[in-house]
Every structure is written in structure tokens, then in C-alpha cells.
Amino acid sequence: MSLLDKASLVQIPSGYKEDKLYSVVPDSGAGDFTFARSSTGTRVNSDGYIEEVPWNKSTYSEDFTNSSYVKNNCTVTADQADSPIGTTTADQIDFGSGSGYFYNTSTLITEPSTYSIYVKYIDFQFLQLISSGDGNHYANFDIQNGVLGDTGSQSTSSIEDIGNGWYRCMIYYNEGTFAGTTRLYKIPSLNVGYASGGGNNGSFYFWGNQLNKGTSVKPYVKTTDRLDIPRLDYSDGTCPSLLLEPQRTNLNILSNSNFIANQGTISYNNTTSPEGITNAYRATATGTSSSFVRSLNIAFTDPSAFSVFLKHGNNEWVQIINAGNVNHYVNVNIENGDLGTFGSNTSNLLVEDYGNGWYRVSGKFSGWSGLSTLRVYMANSSSSNWASTTTTIGNYYYGYGFQVEANASFATSYIPTSGSTTTRTEDVCKNAGTSATFNDSEGVLFVEIKALSDLVEGRLSINNGSNLQTIQIRQSGTVSNQYNIGFSNGTLNKFIVVDDITQYNKIAVSYNSSEAKIYINGIEVATDNSITTPIGLDRLSFDRGDNSFFYYGKVKQLIYFNEALTDEELAALTTI
């Protein structure tokens, strides 16, 4: 029998939807977590690229009766036919004679993007997709025969036969600077021009509205309000982890465009970014000293976390600074990821390899607040002083994703901005299980977790909806690399230091009526023979039980056994 066969709750991040993180065991739904984050967020996907969660920018992608859709000379009736996936969720659109169009207000095109929608013929044959912001981007479709007609001079489009009369119509926006919405027009034939709606009245079915970043269509994903979706992050390998982060705001209002260059030029959309799409810039030196790219003014606080993605061209060293303080700088080798010298008020430095030559450099600026700019200088040394760099004319590097986070000691996941500061709200994951899942008399709580930083306190616990009866695993936040593991009644209260709390650690807390044991990474690190176990345990949450001290980090596994395990089983369970 597998050890997992003894478990009453198993959470290995895999299945999710809006408001929900599914557990593998039990399969009744009793072990599922409720999830909330009232914003979108980003993750690293299974291909190693950063993407927004969800990647579909359209709201209410299967509810075309929703008020987010504008309907001109047409009406929509919900749930009139089977969709391409067999659910009776396809809507019917009925156009009157003359011009008519339909669009979702959330499908605004501000970057290279792809729009797609599924359609099925009833008695109206031709439709057109356009960008309302640019007359060169349109495409005509015959949805009875699956034929692509005329397209605009700058449009790339396609139509795919899905089967059972369904077609997926797609239009690609390569430049992404139109600031318009994608609109669906009824048209009289395949060879009309931009926004040339018209013809007799008629109807067709449609389903699955989607706008995604990049100039290739992504698999369709359903949305409602696009909020409260767990992020399964692959930045640590082929298996995902649940990513839980605090609320943060990117104060840099234009994270990937409209920078200002000194002694240099900027070429936007020049190469493939960590998103896997062509939206990274290239900076080229036109002078030998003080060649930099900078943000617009940012209101730095004490402390502020900064981060930027950089890729080597032919300039080996760069320097990142806050222009407002001479102690806010770091020199970085973007060919191999090595750190050089840095300022006395610059700390918590981290260089992360994002693949394809990209590094994310992050850290903390402290001891100063004020209005300033984040800058990336080209340098020729590992030890250049603040804003005192030199380079060679013609040298270049690639950049992407400027970010400054207020009142923060470490950087979190990338928060895209496009004209205003953007906030990603905190991840809240809680309330898995019932009283039938947990055993007050004996059991084992096992987790495999990785902290975002050694600088933040966070807890996960089995509890009764309060912090009065709990089994807790607590990250200290004040003592380096320390966990505090115990019961809320104080009869088990162990402080344990590990090698590195920001790497994955496997922790098991085993208890019965007379004894508790703690195993970490295959080793028994603590035992207690004088305990009183908590009572009334009926849920598991990434907090201490009372909606405070949320755990922020990555979770690769979480398992609960409603019986104690042997020493051999505990060692095997926690061995790295």
C-alpha cells in the first residue's frame, strides 16, 4: 500500500478554477480550498514563460448577455446550442438588417495580441473582426464554409475547423499599439473593407471569447470576472507549486515602454522577452559615459523593492540605481549572473535565471524616500561607483519589466503596468477539509514549502476557525531561516533553524495522545512527550486560523494523515 493511501487530504497543485483550488484527496470536494485574489497576477508557465493568470483578457467569455458586451443592432440569447466542448453554453446572436456589431469592452488592444472566437452558422454566412483603433487590421470570414476572405494590409488571420459546424476565427495584432477593442461585424460578403457592416438580418451561434497576449492563439480558457484564480507556478521545475504572495503595487507606471534614454537609443519590441513574445527593448549606447535607460518619476519609499529583467547583448556589466540616493546601486554581470559591488543601503540582492539568457535582478533600497527614477546604466566594470559608468559606443543589452514596490523588502512576481500604477492583491487560500478529515487524537501534517523571503512571518495551520485551537507551522520572519512549529495551547512549541528557508523544505508534524514529533528533510529534529492536542480541528488554512498572518510562499505538496505514522514513514515522507 502506498503511503498516500493512508492520507485523508492530499493537495498537490494541479486542478483549479475561479474561487477554488482542488485537492486530489478527497475527491468529494470536501478537501478543496476556497481561494481569493481580487486581481489578476502573473506566474511562470510550464513552458518557462511569464504569463498573466488568466491569460484570457476577456471577461465573461461564455456569457455574451453580460453588460460588458456592447450590442449594436443585435440581440443575444443565452445557452441555445451545444458548445465546441459539448456543454449547452453557446449563445445565439440575431442581427437586424443593415449594419451591426458586437464587442467586449475588456478586449482593449495595448500590446501584441491575438483575438479569437468560436462561431457556428445558422443562416448568416459572413462576419468581420476588426480593431476599432486601426483601419488596417481587419479580417473577413465565411462561417458556413470555413473560408478566410479579405484582410487588412497589416492583418494576419486564420480560421480553424473545430468540428460539428464550429469554426474558430482568429486575428493577430503584431504591433499592439491601437488602443482599440476587437469588434465583430456582420458583413454582406467576403470582399468588403474595414468596418463595412451590412446585409440582411440573420443569426449564428458563438462561444468562447478570448484576447491573449502574443501573436499566436493560446488554448481557450473560460473567464467570468477574471479574479480569484490560483497561480500554479513552474519557475522551480517541471512540477508546479501554488504561489501565494502579499498585496503589492508596481509604482512604475510604464513597466515595459516609454523609457527615457541618455547617451543611447531604445528599440522597443526588439526581441523575445521572458513572456515568450516580442516585447522586450534593446538599448544601444551612443556615448561612452552615463549611457542609461530610465523610468519616469517614481515615488520611492523606505524601503522599496526593485526588479528588472536583463539580457546580455555585447555589454557584459550593467548598473541598476535609484537616481535619488548614492547608496542605492548594484553592478551586475548579465552574461553570467554574477554580482559586483553595491551600495551600503542596497541589500537582499537576488539574480534569478529565467532562461533564454534572461536574468531578473532584484533587491531592496532602504534609508531614503522621495521622487526619483529607476535606471539601468551600461558599465564596463564590476566595481563602478554610483552613476559613474563607462561603455563603448555601439554596445547594447536587452531589457524588460521595470518594477518598484513600495514599503517592501523583497521583490514579488512581475506586475505589468501600462500607464498607471497597478496593484496585485494578496492571495488567500483557506478552509480545506471538515471535522471528518482531521483527527484530534492523532495525525500527521506534512508540507513541502519554500518561503518568498526570510523577512516575512507567515503561518499555515489546521484549526477550528480561530487561533485558539491549532496545529501551526510558522515562518519566523525575525530569526533567520527559522520555523516555529507547535500547538496553540503551548504544549508543543519548537523553534527549528534550517539551512535555507527560501529553498524547499519538507516538514512533518506527527502527534498522538502522548507524543509529538517533528521531521524536517528526513531527520527527526524535535520530540515532546508532554503534550495536549488541540480539539475541534475542522479545516486547513494558509493562515493561523483567524484570517491573519497569511502564509506567503510556494507550496509543492500538502498532505494530512488522520493517523500517526511510524518513524520510518516520517523519514521517507520528508526525505528530499
CATH topology of the largest domain, anyone? Jelly Rolls
| Strand residue content | over 45%
Q: What is the rounded Rg? A: 27 Å
Q: Count the DSSP helices.
A: 1
Which second-level CATH architecture of the largest domain applies?
Sandwich
Structure description:
The protein has 576 residues and is mainly β. It folds into 3 domains: 3-39 and 428-574, Jelly Rolls; 69-213, Jelly Rolls; 249-424, Galactose-binding domain-like (Jelly Rolls, Sandwich). The protein contains 1 helix and 47 strands. The strands form 10 sheets. Strands 1, 19, 20, 38, 43, 44, 45 and 47 form an 8-stranded antiparallel beta sheet that branches. Strand 28 (317-322) and strand 29 (329-333) form a beta hairpin. The mean pLDDT is 96.
Secondary structure: elements and pairs:
Layout: E1 7-11, E2 16-17, E3 20-21, E4 33-36, E5 41-44, E6 50-53, E7 69-72, E8 74-81, E9 90-95, E10 101-109, E11 113-121, E12 126-131, E13 134-142, E14 147-151, E15 156-163, E16 166-173, E17 180-186, E18 202-213, E19 232-233, E20 241-244, E21 248-250, E22 260-262, E23 264-272, E24 278-285, E25 292-294, E26 298-300, E27 304-312, E28 317-322, E29 329-333, E30 339-342, E31 346-355, E32 358-365, E33 370-372, E34 374-379, E35 396-406, E36 422-424, E37 428-430, E38 443-451, E39 458-463, E40 470-475, E41 482-487, E42 493-497, E43 505-511, E44 516-520, E45 523-528, E46 539-541, E47 553-561, H1 567-574
Antiparallel strand pairs: 1-47, 2-3, 3-4, 4-37, 5-6, 7-10, 8-9, 9-18, 10-17, 11-16, 11-18, 12-13, 12-17, 13-14, 15-16, 19-20, 20-47, 21-36, 22-25, 23-24, 24-35, 25-34, 26-33, 27-32, 27-35, 28-29, 28-34, 29-30, 31-32, 38-43, 38-47, 39-40, 39-46, 40-41, 41-42, 43-44, 44-45
